[in-house]
Amino acid sequence: MKNLNKLLLALILLLAVFLRFNGIAANPPGLYWDEAVIGYDAYSILRTGRDHHNVHLPLFFESFGDWKLPVYEYLTIPSVAVLGLNELAVRFPSALLGSFSVLLIYLVLKNQTKNEKLALCCALLLAISPWHIQFSRAGFESSSALFIFLLGYYLVVKAIGSQKAKLLIGGLVLIALSQYTYHAYRIFAPLFLLGLGFIYRDSLLKFKKLALVGLLVFFTISAPIIAFTFSKEGVIRASSQKATSSVELEKARLHFDQFSKPPFRFLSKYLYQESLYNSQILLKNYLDHFSSTFLFFRGDQVGRHSLVDLGQVNVFELPLILIGIICLKNLKNRKFIRTMILWLVIAPIPAMIVMPTPHANRSLQMIIPLVFLGGVGLEYLISHTHKIVIGLFGLWMFGVFLIYTNQLFGSYPKKFAPDWQAGNREMVNYVKSISAKYKKVYITNIAGVPYIYLLFYTKYDPSLYQKAGSSKGFANFQIVDTNAKIYKEKNVLYVAPVWQKIEGNALRAINDSRPEPVYKVWELNVNR
Amino acid sequence: MLTGKKGLKILLAGLLAGLFCFRIWQSTDCVNFRSFTFDNRRITATVEAGRRYETNPDGLLSKLAHNKFTVAPYEFGLNLSALLDPKYLLDLIGPLGLAAALIAVYYIVSQRSKAGLIYLAVLTLVQILATLFTSSKTDMLILCVLWFLLGFWSLNFFVKTKARLIVFVVLWAYSLWLFFITWQLPLICNEILFK
After folding, report:
1. Cα distance between residue A429 and residue A417, in whole Å
2. Where are the alpha helices (DSSP H) in A347-423?
3. A142 and A135 in contact (C-beta within 8 Å)?
4. CA A74 – CA A49 distance, rounded (Å)
């Protein structure tokens, strides 16, 4: 039996690795600008010890309109060193840690429930989870943060059971580090620790000193991120996407004045109190993450965050989760159940304060309790129902899995090319191959920030960029608007949006993975 | 005169009923209620949209993945899930109704109450019927009443301690306020005109 379990675990892990690594260099179909900047900063640090903004070993990395956290950036350095500066290197840490999370959930469940079958069921559900696969296949920090947090949690609960100081300190260090990996954990990790402390208060009271030392370590490591959170840089992103605003409140009040039932319109000045009004927005944003449409039928509507036409969680997990909830009382470790409920309840909190909602990336941590509940349901189904029922359910699972993998590896790269800014690699490779012939290369500033793609795909020397480059251009590359005066100079190569009319010699259209043209390359004022 | 927990329960039931009646009254000016009805044309459209991105749209794999038998249950589930959307339910029965319904389901399931389980089965059946028939106004009214009634199972929970009683009162006031500011019933009604 033990050997069979080991074999099953090995198969599940193989499946997890396959689903996370298969073709990740080309699918997702393009390198999103956040991934490109992570990759180039890793390359820059590797070559010069400085990021592309010329900051020596930064703790926080300046990005496009926000600041990136350091853990994923530094994790990418060895990957770029070994694999070179390419898509695979940027996505490798995420896919690797995502695969390890499957092993980790098995270990957590085995440790906490002493039920190997349940641990295997949870590992299987995480291995084939569309939500987890999506964020493990790209250079998203959230999947790595989840692994680091889960490992930290595993060590902490192991330490509580065994009263081993090293494990507790190690676990808390990792939980603190998760805050340096992805922004959502700056809210989720402290709230979770607070709740966990309450659940395990009797155990912690037995070794107060150790618990206090652990807390001290946690807060010492967290101090820079706490300071960052309240700094100007730390709130840029949150304030630009804040869910609540006084303008929206005023709009709502005016709407009430105009469209509510006439005898009650005078109430608007009393009803629209800012904090009360904001509370209902936050409540709705929070509840959005528990919508069955979002979870099981249509996921996050951003193509980078899901397959859009399928839910974040496999649809067959809906009955499993319901069965799981009913069967929770069969589990003996009540504290673990409370921890999972706590996890599920606080997981969407970081996502509710910013728009849009529901947001699959900011609430990825929800997947662990959902997989746990689904796992309890699956284990019950396998252990307590007739073989025919198990067979039919297995068939359904397999069918859903086939539809999912067919979409992931078949239609996804074509359907969501614009979401991934596909076409930039092809554009840079083409421009690179002919740019030496031209005095100037103008590239229009459409589809985000082309300079980072030029740096990334030309592997431009970071020390040269640090000295003389900027987001407006470097070497003979110039990033321009579509209304720039491009006809002034002789011998110019111009990369235009496909819709722009140019008086010049069209060389080639650059297609994305659909394939649809994204750019058109022109040469202007060339005398040959 | 009724005293003690029984009296308290009746009082809470009155408050709950009053809140629910207020919400239903608010919807009387609604011209078009939101429909959750299953649309056959959407199935064809979804099948076609799914095949468009396949490498071989007319191939066996494409036909196996995108056909009426795979899409219809999905579309049906999608409509049903829209009826269970927590945001929609929040608009329909308010935070108190939602909390009461959750507590009620927990009580019914954990105590395996026969009457409660039958009630849940009826509620599920009505949800399914609401996705199959087109009278959106009737659907809304029946569903609203059924969800409200489910909330009454939670009253035992709220009368147990003073803290819970306070939670009930706070949620009641909050729900009333929310019903006021969402007089236009954004998720329930497609068009509302007040004279």
Report:
1. 18
2. 349-352, 367-384, 387-406, 412-415
3. yes
4. 11
Structure tokens at A423: 């076409």
Note whether A252 contacts B181, CB cutoff 8 Å: yes
C-alpha distance from A414 to closest chain B C-alpha (Å): 7
Establish whether the linkage from the previous residue to A517 is cis, with ω within 30° of 0: no
Cα angle vertex A349, ends B110, A225, to 5°?
135
CA atoms A420, A141, A318, B127: torsion sign: negative
Tokens of A223: 């101090």
Chain A CB contacts of B26 under 8 Å are 261
Q: Does A384 touch chain B (CB under 8 A)?
A: no
Q: Which residues of A touch B177 (CB under 8 A)?
A: 271, 276
Q: Given A264, A280, A399, which is nearest B178 (Cβ)?
A: A280
CA A34: distance to chain centroid? 11
Give pLDDT tens digits for A98-148.
Answer: 999 999 999 999 999 999 999 999 999 999 999 999 999 999 999 999 999
Please give the helix or strand (H or E) that residue A5 lies within, else none.
helix A2-21
How would residue B4 be classed by pLDDT, with cut points 50, 70 and 90? confident
Q: Which residues contact A500 (CB under 8 A, 6 or more apart)?
A: A444, A482, A520
Distance CA B77, CA B70 (A): 11
Q: Write the CA distances from A74 to A44, A90, A325, A517, integer angstroms.
A: 11, 11, 40, 35
Residues of B with CB under 8 A from a CB of A: 26, 29, 46, 50, 53-55, 61, 65, 70, 74, 77-78, 81-82, 84-87, 90, 95, 109-110, 177-178, 180-181, 183-184, 192, 194-195
Taking only the tens place, the pLDDT of each residue in A452-489 is 999 999 999 999 999 999 999 999 999 998 888 888 88
Domains of chain A by residue range: 2-240+285-415, 423-524
Q: What is the complex's ipTM, to 2 decimals?
A: 0.91
Report residue A136 CA to chain centroid gap. 8
b/e B88-104 (16+ beta carbons within 10 angstroms → b): bbbbbbbbbbbbbbebb
Asked if A280 and B81 come within 8 Å (Cβ–Cβ), the reply is no
